[in-house]
Each structure stands twice: as structure tokens, then as C-alpha cells.
């Protein structure tokens, strides 16, 4: 009898089980990240999401239309903010200050999450590279043991350990030659 989390080892079920295990792990990591968010982080995310909606744009369009219309169409006695609408300008300016702060808080949080994901991707890629290098070495030993000659230079090069530092230098040199700016490290 198969237990939960155990792989069956048969056809598509195995791939489905492997991918589901990975999906569950990622969901758990995302939930862990969400659970560590402070009240201010959650508020900033909600405000940023609301400000990025079409409802927000429509709401402001209606508000501005009513405000400007009410202060220009009706009798001058009813105008509480006559043209050039200084009170409206003050309110919109204050709103912009607070909204930009909330949006920056949300973006900073999202950037940290994105950087964490990038580090995870890098670690997995480096681990995969190390595993592949070891497998090539083992396959070369097996080929030698059974008498199969494997004199391919590409396979020999792939069997060498990858040095991330050298790859970064190679990328930087290539970008310099092509006049594409290399990404600058965050301070």
C-alpha cells in the first residue's frame, strides 16, 4: 500500500506525483512568506492592489467629474472649491503622497520575495549542475569499465566543475564588448 508522499514509480502517475509534490512545496513556502507579513505589509499590499484596479480609475473619474462639475455648473453660492480647485489639488496631492508610500512598501516587499525566489532558483540550478557533473563522471567511468571509448571534447568539458565566479566574469566581459550595461549589485 502506497503512503501519502510516496512515489508509485509508474508512468504518468510518477510525474504527476513529483510535480504535485513540488507544487505543494512552493505553496507551503508562499504561505510561510504570507504568514510573516506584518499588518503594515498586508495593508500596503491591499492598498496597492486597489490602486492598480480599473475600479480605482473609474471611481476617481467619477469623483473628479462630480467635484469639478459641482464647482462650475451650479450657482456661485454653492461652489465650495471654485476654479482652480485648490482644495481638490490639496486632497489629490495628499492622496498621491500616501498612495506612493503604500505602493513603495508593497514593491519593496515584493522585491524581497522576488530576490528570495531568485536565490532559490540559483541554488537549485547550481545543485543540478553539480549533480549533472557527477553523473557525467559516473557515466564516463561506466563507459571505461565496459570498454566504450568516449573521446568527445564536449562531454569532457561538461564533466568539469562549473565555477559561478568565472561565469559571471565571462558574462561581464561579453556585455562590455557589446556595450550592454552589466547589472549593478544592489546596495
Characterize the structure shown:
The chain is mainly alpha-helical and 187 residues long. It has one domain. Helices cover 73% and strands 0% of the residues. The chain has 6 helices and no strands. The longest helix has 61 residues. The radius of gyration is 29 Å and the shape is elongated. The model has no long low-confidence stretch (mean pLDDT 86).
Give a short overview.
This protein is mainly alpha-helical and 187 residues long. The protein is 73% helix and 0% strand.
What are its keywords?
single chain, 187 residues, mainly alpha, elongated
Helix content: over 70%
The pLDDT mean sits at: 86
Shape label: elongated
Determine the N-to-C terminus distance. 54 Å
Count of distinct structural domains: 1
The total beta strand count reads: 0
> pLDDT below 50 for ≥5 consecutive residues: which ranges?
none
- What's the order of the H and E elements? HHHHHH
Give the SSE map.
Elements: H1 11-35, H2 39-51, H3 54-70, H4 86-146, H5 153-158, H6 164-177
